[in-house]
Specification:
The complex is a heterodimer of chains A (240) and B (199).
Chain A lengths: L5 H8 L6 H10 L1 H18 L8 H9 L11 H8 L2 H27 L20 H17 L6 H23 L3 H19 L4 H14 L1 H19 L1
Chain B lengths: L7 H11 L6 H20 L2 H18 L9 H22 L7 E3 L8 E3 L14 H12 L3 H12 L4 H8 L3 H18 L1 H4 L4
Parallel strand pairs in B: 1-2
Helix pairs in contact in B: 1-2, 2-3, 2-4, 3-4, 4-7, 6-7, 6-8, 7-8
The chains are: A mainly alpha (240), B mainly alpha (199).
Chain lengths: 240, 199
């Protein structure tokens, strides 16, 4: 014989069982389940007997009334939406105006700051150096290249030593220019690096110096370096 | 309870309250405060907390009245608020171990913080309402979790449908049923000495 669980019998006593008639029939023939069911019924009866105190309505009302504020009905939702309909176009126009102002402001600022535009085959050299110490590097580069350009014989040891030193520093400035997104400056410095590498490795003969001068002038490197330096001077002058 | 439609007097009272007439709320309080206190008493287990929970529930309902859409009746709505308020109060009391609210007992006692309530249900079950039984009932109810106690008392003592209890407790109907079944099972074991218990 299949017995019912305590949970089934509790549900039965609370009239929450979906199988009430089957349980009822079972209880007539199974004393074990009938005893358990009666035990549950007794428990429920014990707790049904709990008395409940009656509240003092007048006292509670007086207590409550003191805390009640004067209410006003909430505005209908549709009215709220209607009320705010005007706000969306205004917000849109304001946003558009702000975007236009930002774009024009940035554009005007850039035009004002751009005094030199290199037209030397590598695109415009427009941006001022972001690293202040690059000014010294560009200055040294210009002096070195000028010296190389003007010398007729083989380069002396001091100039070669300076070229070696500039070669090491140049790699750092190329990387800085790339990182800051100034690809025009990076391209010029890369060219400068190639010249320096040649200078550092070529044997000190008049032929090699002539080849260097040719390479510099063909690529317009000296001019590019001068433009970069002037840009740098200008940006420092503006900032001061 | 939920099937009853709100009558004209209650609808009118709500309209008046929303128009700024605070005293119109008295109509709703007269109609529902007793049943609300009764439910709160079932959950909290003592008269002082029951009245406090009922007061708080009516105040909350008043303040939320502008948002009451009347999709359900006011009685269903206030009952849900009451259940939540009373459960929160019980949980607050459980956290505050220093609080001892007056409890129901067969004899009033200032030292034990107990009060006596007139028994309006004298009958065959009255035999069980002796001092020992009352103490055991208190202890048995104290063993239940707030959810079990609420679900059981509302279903068994107040005859509120499971669906409504579940909605108030924010659980599924099946979870509410299971809470009631667990409560009855626990109570039966606790009351073995006086009510038959497990045989």
């Amino acid at each position: 014989m299949k017995h019912f669980s305590e949970e089934d019998l509790i549900a039965y006593q609370l009239h929450e069982s979906s199988d009430e008639s089957t349980i009822s029939m079972h209880l007539e023939s199974c004393s074990e389940c009938a005893d358990l069911s009666e035990s549950i019924a007794e428990t429920l009866r014990v707790f049904s007997a709990d008395p409940v105190p009656q509240p003092d309505l007048e006292h509670n009302w007086q207590r409550l009334r003191g805390n009640l504020r004067v209410l006003t009905p909430e505005r209908p939702r549709g009215f709220e939406l209607f009320r705010w309909h005007w706000a969306w176009p205004v917000a849109g126009l304001t946003t558009a105006a702000l975007i236009l102002l930002t774009v024009f402001g940035t554009h005007i600022h850039r035009i004002g700051a751009r005094h030199n535009i290199a037209v030397n085959g590598h695109g415009p050299l427009t941006t001022e150096p972001t690293d202040p110490s690059i000014a010294n590097h560009l200055d040294a580069a210009e002096r070195l290249l000028t010296e190389v350009n003007n010398s007729s014989g083989p380069l002396d040891d001091a100039t070669r030593e300076q070229a070696h030193s500039l070669l090491l520093q140049n790699a750092v400035y190329v990387r800085s220019a790339r990182d800051s997104g100034d690809f025009a400056e990076a391209a010029v410095l890369e060219n400068f690096g190639r010249v320096l590498t040649t200078l550092d490795n070529e044997p000190p003969t008049s032929h090699s110096t002539w080849r260097l001068r040719l390479e510099m002038n063909t690529s317009g490197l000296l001019l590019d370096i001068r433009i970069l330096r002037q840009n740098d001077d200008h940006s420092q002058g503006v900032s001061q | 309870m939920s099937n009853r439609r709100m009558d004209k007097a209650e609808t009118e009272a709500i309209r008046n309250v929303l128009a700024g007439n605070r005293d119109a709320y008295r109509v709703l309080m007269d109609r529902h405060f007793c049943s609300v206190t009764r439910v709160a008493f079932r959950i909290t287990g003592n008269e002082a907390d029951a009245e406090e929970a009922a007061q708080e529930a009516f105040l909350r309902a008043y303040n939320k009245l502008p948002t009451f859409r009347q999709d359900s009746t006011f009685s269903t709505w206030i009952m849900r608020i009451t259940m939540n308020t009373a459960i929160n109060l019980v949980e607050r009391r459980n956290r505050d171990l220093s609080y001892h609210a007056p409890r129901i007992s067969d004899e009033a006692s200032t030292t034990n913080h107990t009060v006596k309530i007139a028994d309006r249900q004298a009958g065959p079950e009255g035999i069980l309402l002796n001092r020992e039984a009352a103490g055991l009932r208190q202890a048995a109810m104290a063993e239940l979790t707030p959810m079990e106690r609420t679900a059981f008392t509302l279903r068994h003592m107040e005859d509120i449908p499971m669906g409504e209890i579940a909605a108030a407790l924010n659980v599924t109907t099946n979870s509410a049923k299971q809470a009631v079944f667990r409560a009855v099972s626990k109570l039966r074991r606790s009351l073995t000495p006086i009510a038959g218990g497990l045989r």
